[in-house]
Amino acid sequence: MPDDYKRYRDAVRKKVCEHCIDYDHENAHCTLTGDKHCGVELYLENIVKVVQSVKAKELAEYVKLLRETVCHDCKNQEPDGSCQLRSESECGLDRYFELIVEAIEEVDKSKS
Ligand code: SF4
Ligand code: SF4
């Protein structure tokens, strides 16, 4: 991931990961790996693009674009659009998406 994304990664870690049930505070990293590796870490670059491309700043619009892009390419989403991790609230990206959007927008505002 390019260095430009470091600020987004740091902002999301502080606002989201440090409050997430799957975060290891002692070692300062996410505990999820393998099949459960979180979309926040796997897809951050695309998540930032989604957030920046939404014109109508409404959560439903962000979610729609997230599903059409990031989830569409995620191996956990089924061809019918369903996702078991999402339906069981096991996807950190989905669970904390509103806060992730806020973290990314705060970084962008601090740049302007
Ligand atoms: S599960 Fe996702 S949101 Fe939670 S700490 Fe890991 S990367 Fe962050
Ligand atoms: S909600 Fe499901 S399809 Fe979307 S990123 Fe999370 S695990 Fe992948």
What does this structure look like?
By secondary structure, the chain is mainly alpha-helical. The protein contains seven helices and two strands; from the N terminus they run αββαααααα. The protein has helices at 6-15, 39-42, 44-53, 59-73, 84-87, 92-95, 97-111; strands spanning 23-24, 29-30. Strands 1-2 form a two-stranded antiparallel sheet. The structure holds iron/sulfur cluster (SF4) (2 copies). Residues 39, 70-71, 74, 76-77, 83, 85-86, 91, 93-94 line the site of one iron/sulfur cluster (SF4).
Based on DSSP secondary structure assignment, what is the total number of beta strands?
A: 2
Strand order of the largest sheet: 1-2
Major sheet description: 2 strands, antiparallel
Mean pLDDT: 93
The backbone outline, from C-alpha atoms, is: globular
Distance between the termini: 23 Å
Number of domains: 1
Bin the strand percentage.
under 5%
Give short descriptive properties of this protein.
112 residues, binds iron/sulfur cluster, two-stranded antiparallel sheet
Secondary structure topology:
Blueprint: H1 6-15, E1 23-24, E2 29-30, H2 39-42, H3 44-53, H4 59-73, H5 84-87, H6 92-95, H7 97-111
Antiparallel strand pairs: 1-2
Helix pairs in contact: 1-7, 3-4
The chain binds iron/sulfur cluster (2 copies).
